[in-house]
């Protein structure tokens, strides 16, 4: 179910829930290090977007859950900040449609992807910029009770040495069950993953799953990452703590909590749960009895429209 290359018109909603349509020329899909299908596209006005959709090689129900996760957290990020104050380290969603046979999410264009050989191309000063930018991204997520669940080089895009963290298909909210970790999600999960990513950036070596770095392998990181590899997530420093160790300042606080959107956010989560096999929560897990204060979630779209011409390539496979 790759997106057809060429002209198409997608209809859905913007992050505030308003009906919109986008006339696009979709380009060839790209490898994005993600479980979702990803393709760049050009709008009729010449602007660029990234189209995220369901991969054809994964059961639709599972892939739909991934896309729901991404739409949920991306709209939460977007509506928590003014257009001028949107964190540069996080992706900006442009529009979405989730309650249809052909769901999608549109994002502002991604930056160039990081690669495993990144360390050899960065000066020490640039590595520190990368570390600060990565921890700033995680601090913004923690402030909105979001746990990314997949922090690694494939989820990092770069502008110089500055990070944009993408690929939110496995993201959940703090306190929810995380399939990626097999337990309740905690911001410390992302802090640990960021520590492993920085170790890879500094040494060029990716550690096997479950292994923690030897301090001698990257002595420049010893003081910065003290406590990051603690066994319990709650015992690890926060991303904000790590920013302060770098003297990289604080983050601008989100200004969300528009009461007018609260009902729409609630309806989105209800519709999302209703699509799951038992109508309770992701992978059969009941939603937590308590959770973070409600913030931006997409308003509930109207009932699905009649099927329009398919815009997926039935012969290709997701990259």
TrEMBL record:
Pro residues bias locations: 289-304
Residue ranges of the region described as Disordered: 270-319
InterPro entries listed in its UniProt record: Kinase-like_dom_sf
Domain of life: Bacteria
Protein's UniProt name: Protein kinase domain-containing protein
């Amino acid at each position: 179910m790759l997106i057809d290359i060429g002209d198409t018109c997608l209809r859905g909603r913007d992050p505030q829930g308003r009906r919109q349509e986008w006339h696009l020329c979709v380009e060839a899909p790209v490898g994005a290090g993600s479980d979702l299908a990803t393709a760049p596209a050009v709008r009729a006005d010449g602007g660029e977007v990234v189209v995220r959709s369901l991969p054809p090689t994964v059961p639709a129900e599972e892939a739909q859950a991934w896309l729901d996760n991404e739409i949920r957290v991306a709209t939460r990020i977007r509506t928590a900040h003014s257009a001028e104050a949107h964190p540069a380290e996080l992706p900006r969603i442009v529009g979405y449609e989730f309650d249809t046979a052909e769901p999608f999410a549109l994002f502002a264009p991604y930056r160039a992807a990081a690669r495993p050989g990144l360390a050899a191309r960065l000066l020490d000063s640039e590595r520190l910029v990368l570390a600060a930018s990565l921890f700033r991204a995680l601090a913004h997520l923690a402030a909105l009770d979001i746990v990314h669940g997949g922090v690694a080089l494939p989820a990092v895009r770069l502008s110089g040495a500055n990070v944009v963290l993408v690929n939110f298909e496995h993201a959940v909210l703090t306190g929810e069950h995380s399939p990626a970790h097999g337990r309740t999600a905690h911001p410390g999960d992302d802090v640990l993953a960021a520590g492993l990513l920085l170790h890879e950036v500094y040494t060029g070596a990716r550690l096997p799953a479950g292994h923690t770095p030897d301090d001698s392998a990257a002595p420049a990181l010893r003081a910065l990452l003290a406590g990051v590899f603690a066994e319990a997530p709650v015992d690890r420093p926060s991303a904000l703590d790590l920013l302060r160790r770098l003297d990289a300042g604080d983050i601008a606080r989100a200004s969300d909590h528009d009461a007018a959107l609260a009902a729409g956010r609630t309806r989105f989560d209800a519709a999302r749960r209703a699509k799951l096999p038992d109508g309770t929560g992701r992978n059969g897990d009941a939603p937590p009895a308590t959770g973070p204060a409600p913030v931006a979630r997409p308003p509930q779209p109207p009932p699905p429209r009649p099927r329009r011409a398919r815009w997926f390539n039935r012969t290709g496979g997701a990259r």
